[in-house]
Amino acid sequence: MNPEGYRSRLADLDARIGKAQPPPDIVLGQASGLLAGRAGCRLGEAHAYLVRLAAEQRRPAHELAAELLAALEKEPPRGPPFVSAMLEAALRPAQDQAAPAPAPRPSSSGEAWIQAVQQILDGLAGRHVLLIPRYTATGQVDDYTFAAASPAVLDLSGRSGAQLIGHRMSEIYPAIVDGPIWDAWHQTLRDGLPRQIGPLPYLSPAERAPAEILLTVKVWPVGAGLLNSWIRHDEETRLAERIAQTERLGNLGWGEWDLVTGQVLWSDGLYRVYERAPSEGPLSREETEALIVPDDLPVRARAAEAFGRGEAVDVTYRIRLGGRIKHVRTVVDAVRDTEGRPVKVYGIVQDVTAGEISRLRLTEAERQLRAQQQSLAAEHRVVTRLQQIVLPMPQEPIDLPGLRVAVRYLPAEKASRVGGDWYHATPTGNGNVLLSVGDVAGHGMEAAAAMAQLRHGLAALAVTTTDDPGRLLTALNRLLFADGHVAAQPNLLPVTATAVVARYEPGRNRLVWARAGHPAPLLARAGVTVELEQPDGPLLGAFPAAEYPTTVTSLRPGDVLLLYTDGLVEQRHQSSEQGLAPVLAVLNRITAEPAPHPVADLVNQLDHANPDDDTCILAARPLGGPSPAGGP
Amino acid sequence: MEMRTDEVLQVTLRGEIDFTNSTEINKRIKEAVTEYRPAAVRVDLSAVTFIDSTGVGVLVNAMRMANAARSEFRVVGPNRRISDQLRTMGLLAAFGLA
Prior knowledge:
The complex is a heterodimer of chains A (632) and B (98).
Chain A: H1 3-17, H2 26-39, H3 43-56, H4 61-74, H5 80-97, H6 112-122, E1 127-135, E2 141-149, H7 161-164, H8 169-172, H9 180-191, E3 195-203, E4 212-222, E5 225-232, H10 233-250, E6 252-258, E7 264-266, H11 268-273, H12 285-290, H13 297-308, E8 313-321, E9 324-336, E10 342-351, H14 353-390, E11 398-400, E12 403-410, E13 419-427, E14 433-443, H15 444-464, H16 469-481, H17 485-488, E15 497-505, E16 510-516, E17 522-525, E18 528-531, E19 551-554, E20 560-564, H18 576-592, H19 598-605, E21 615-622
Helix pairs in contact in A: 1-2, 2-3, 2-4, 3-4, 4-5, 5-6, 14-15, 15-16, 18-19
Chain B: E1 2-5, E2 8-17, H1 22-36, E3 40-51, H2 53-68, E4 72-76, H3 80-88
Helix pairs in contact in B: 1-2
């Protein structure tokens, strides 16, 4: 016991937390220390007991402590009678004032001290019983009676301390009679000296108890009886194992800083966190603080302030150990006296480096995601630009031989879905007109690249090779099927596409067309719209030698032909009939009466972008007024 | 997605098949076909509610891989909408649905 040390450590702590506190109560510390020394309990237990007792009596703890000190200092310790006298003197107010006196037993002058012992035991951790010897007529001790017991007493058969009181040892624990513990009690009664027996095995007669347990028994003479403490080693071991395992699993350590004694205790786990051998002993507070990464010192300082306000602290900071950085989370709380001054500081320290690293990786992943989103936006800009270059969209209808055409490209509302829809409308050189729309599966750069390839391929083939829609699609299919980049990037899907290609022959008012997996064109005539009967023809890029038969439809002035990609009618959560119905309604309405600008009206009225998919529409009407086929 | 292999590689797809999951499905079918060289590949679409053009691309590629490995290829159980889509795309016969 060193009250000066306690005072200086408190002062030190006060200085740390930057908060002035009244000087420490030395008396309480002294009394705790003396009581602990005399009662053979731990200092913390004695301290807690005094504080609790004072609180129960609604008195300042130091006052009670002063009384105890006075009693203790009057006489030097010299045996059982002193202890009982001291306890009676010091604790009499407790008996008078404490409201619920425990175990009201038949009162006699000889039993008052037993009640006092019971009160002390009530405040103690651990398993302690007070035994009173029973004497035979000849003055021999033949048994012991349980006179008081601490709350933690719970024997192997499940009996609590209260259930033991008043019973004899031989009826409760017959196995003890005449054994080594029994002999030790006898000896202590004779010579007045405390003893420790064990660890020794105890065989329990109770069936549901462990067959054999290891016990250490400590015996002190108290008054006319014996104070007996049981330490069960199996439990101790289990508890220690459990704590050790918890520490290992949670990367946890536990430390205790006793401000009264100055003692610093570290658990094995805490040594692991600080990568120190237990034989080296714990680091001082100054040494642990020196390990903190300077950038994190303010964090630690704020925590100390909170601690000064009496708050529990939970803080994470970095320490540097052997050139590596560790993230440690520390939860600090204190046992405080009745006036709020810390007596003991406890810290649970957790190595959260792994968690912090995951968190940092997550942050990095988020950063990459943002970068990728930016690159998606960049890709979208490129694709949009590419679309504009490859596929210039005339805002006004264009006039081709015998045909007026309006086109509209509606990019997907969601930027990431912009992709590979295209159209083509051009004279073939022999008086005919080639019309086409197509749709490359997928979105983004790849789809846009395939779109460019198909559209330019079609334009080149139409000029150099053929204007037959079936033969053109056959060629585009070969082009796409043989596409080399698939082999280069094996996890990419081969590109597929759909398209419809039509050749309008103005002189014959007919449309020759073929399709490759694409919806058939719609033909609106005088308020009635039909989907053209579709020839066979699989999508492009699926089969090496697909055939695309053509079919012929008459197309007369006044008719409106609509080629479209499925973005116009396909919505994820509705059927294609549901999607097609409004388009048919617009076509019917526009062609019901002759109108000056039907194709422009049509593309304007169908100008609703699909959220998920590009849409390309091409509307065409034969020129020459609503005259019969073959007219001037 | 679920795969079972003995003589037949049985691929069961569920939910919506679109550009968000097509690459992964394609990869797994490709690995299974390469590893097991099944006599036949069967893709069950009865639990699929939606398929976009990229999803159809997965089926087309499964068919191409099966053909290259001389395995029979079949798609079973498409709902009416998917069946219409496959008809428009000219795939019913090749998928054993005609």
